[in-house]
Amino acid sequence: MKRRSFLASSIAAGVWAVGPANRGVAALRVKSASVILTDITAETDTGTLFDLVERFLENGVWVTCVIRLGQEEARDEALAATLEFLGGLGGGVDLALEVPALASLSPYFQARAVYEASKRLRRVMASRGVRMRVRAVMCDEVEKPMRPTGVRSSGIRNVLVRPRASGRVRSETWDNGVVRFFGGEIVDPALGDAVSGSGNAEEDAVFFYLPMAALARQPEGVVQTWGDQFSKGLVARELQGQLALMTVSDLQLRDQFGKHRLIAVILEAADPSEPEAVQAVETFRGELLAAGIPSAVRPKGATFWANHTDNNAGLMAASLTCDAGQAVKTAVDGVAGAGGLLAFDRVEVSNSGVDGCAVLHVPEFRAGPNIALQELSAGELTDVDIALVLPADLIRHEKLRRRVLARLGALRQDAITRFVPIGKLAGELLTNEPVALRHRLTRAAMARAPQAAHPGPDQAERARLLDDAKLAWTYFETYTEAATGLCPATVNRHPGGEIHRAVTMWDVGSNLNAIVAATELGLIERKEAEKTFRRILPNLAGRVTDGVRLPQGWIRTDRHRWGVRDFDGCDGGRLLASLDNVRRRFGMEKEVSALVSSWNLDKIVVDRQIHSVIKRELRSTFGSHCAHYSALAFRRWGLDVASPYETFAGRSSGDGEMAMLEAVSKIGPLGAEPLLLEAMELGMSPESGYLAEVLFAALEEEFAENGRLLSVSETPIDRKPWFIYQGLELGSGPRNWRLDTVGHQPEYLSAEAAEEFLTFSTKAAYLWAAYRPGPFADKLLEFARSKARYPHGFASGVHLASQRAMHDYSDLNSNAIILQSISHTLRQSG
């Protein structure tokens, strides 16, 4: 009996009892031992490799060969002959694939890296008719490795970390069955290494790493002689009961690794015109369920949606548009819940894993009339997560159904097979980190979104919006300083409250936009608006520091050109976007352009990143949610700047979405601003358009699951810390709402503080109504109207914990953005 057949039959029967739970069984206390040949490339000396592998196999030692693909696919053909040779040696050789950067990648991008590398390797093998499975991957050692869970989707269970120096083997087993191994002995024939030892007494495995690059440097004949001695030494120790020689993929047969494989039974839908066939499918599905085997019915199609949490659901036909540089668009024939897109590929040619559109490819084993299900319990498929497809033609024959049911029942009794719903299989294979979950939840929400365009506000709603605009403009009518044309940032009308007359360039930008919107809405005459602009612009002349002229970080509204010398890159972007708005809509090109050209903005763009100037030192704004919005605004004025959001370029759509979510997760809470301001001012970029869908989906989920109507954004509040940034925090949970402050004070960064200070932002409600009109946005709008109106403009927000609105507390930005949003809504709807 071959060694793998013995191991497989043992584990299936539950008798391979080597591991921590059985250490008292002395007869079985042996170490797993694997010989691993590394650095096999297109440049490898094939003569040396062939001689060595043949000597190992002749002496009874199996080997794992690690393939390293080069940078140039044109060189892959040189590997074909090597792979053809290895494939002809039978079951004694396993393939592993080197993915050097794997440990530095997130689980999603691990899945993608292995999928693409495996796909490329499979093409090379197919060119020579080689049929071998990649059973493990090897990566470089890094200081803080990421969880290796992403590789399971590509059928990989074992991850080898190439040791920098010889050391004891230790392993980590993850919930989805992936095992990562560190350590091993690096064997060098130049040092006369034979079998140097059994490894540390505490380890259950020992790896012998043989780099082909080192072996190739030895004189002709030395490697063959050494390989003969080395392999015979290993076999001698196996006969003595010290080692159990096996390939890396067979290591999972040891009890401590909890090996299991998943099978999802798929029944193909019968032709609706044949009621007897349809009934046979439903009858058989019930019989399977009674036997403890869930199943799903698959309609015709190439791509499907599976809900991960609904064990009784079938598969829904789906279609997708996956264009580079854009978010993926998905349509599902049914209700898309928390789940994902699937495609099925025949197991003989399957390249399982996640493709560039974030579609999971699942190997499919199709049962035929002879029902060769024994292949699932022996041979190459014993460790493959698989979809078992039963055709409608097979199901309609009762005798065949009985045979299938009996064989599946027997398979269910082995120690490693778990029959699961197709949604659960997909959920197990996909990565379940918070960012990946948010990606799938967003895709589901986008698939459910109505396809028809919103009709726009009717006459009654237009009247209500105009009334809202008049109220928002009241803030400016009441508080604008006649001399400067500027409006204060916040007004607290409570006893002892203050009017905050220092405004940032962000505030000034909002002030300019409010005047533009008020003019478009007919609240003021155009000539009056132009006079106000001409009072404001001289106050923006800026200040020269160290020979560089820039707008000031903040200025006073009641004094001419009085403020600080610092410059804020984010606020500068807001000001530039607003000035572009003024020159386009008011024809003030000459005056506005003269002002902007007087600033030395090129001096604060370093390595394509916008910088602030704080105490005469440059500080990058790149790690901020304002960076993308500001970059678009700077580009309007001819400056070439980069954005952290622009992850779509050079990537497939699914990868671009995930790269963006991972980048955003490192920045901080994602709120409505400046995200939705793009749509009002600059035109929505694909990047911000996708992030808007992410945030909107999470807001809808929160309302559906908890009944909480949230409207999160940056906003001033009427108590300490006075200003908060609140939003969806990616990376810490499937849906967490967090806040930050200007000074990042730790007392406000906890989950408890986020709940205590959670505020319904009035302006964000109007932004959503303008950008994403529909039933949910209507709820946001009505809540803002019912809670936040007061005689001098809209209140900044509502404290959600107490449902108390900030009456007699309002701000420039809230009222300006409400005006801007209403103008956008009415302009878009004609």
Number of strands: 37
What share of the residues lie within helices?
A: 25-40%
Report the principal-axis shape. Answer: globular
Number of helices: 24
Largest sheet geometry? 10 strands, mixed
Average pLDDT figure: 89
Span between termini:
80 Å
**Which structural class is indicated by helix and strand composition?**
alpha/beta
What kind of assembly state do the chains in view correspond to? Answer: single chain
Q: Runs with pLDDT <50, length 5+?
A: 1-28
Gyration radius, in Å: 33 Å
Strand fraction equals: 15-25%
Question: What does this 3D model show about the protein?
Answer:
The chain is built from 24 helices and 37 strands. It has 830 residues and is α/β, with parallel strands linked by helices. Strands 10, 11, 12, 13, 14, 15, 16, 17, 18 and 19 form a ten-stranded mixed β-sheet that branches. It has a seven-stranded parallel beta barrel with strand order 1-2-3-4-5-7-8. The longest helix is centred in the middle third of the chain and has 21 residues, at 459-479. It starts with a helix and ends with a helix.
Briefly summarize what is shown:
By secondary structure, this protein is α/β, with parallel strands linked by helices. It has 24 helices and 37 strands.
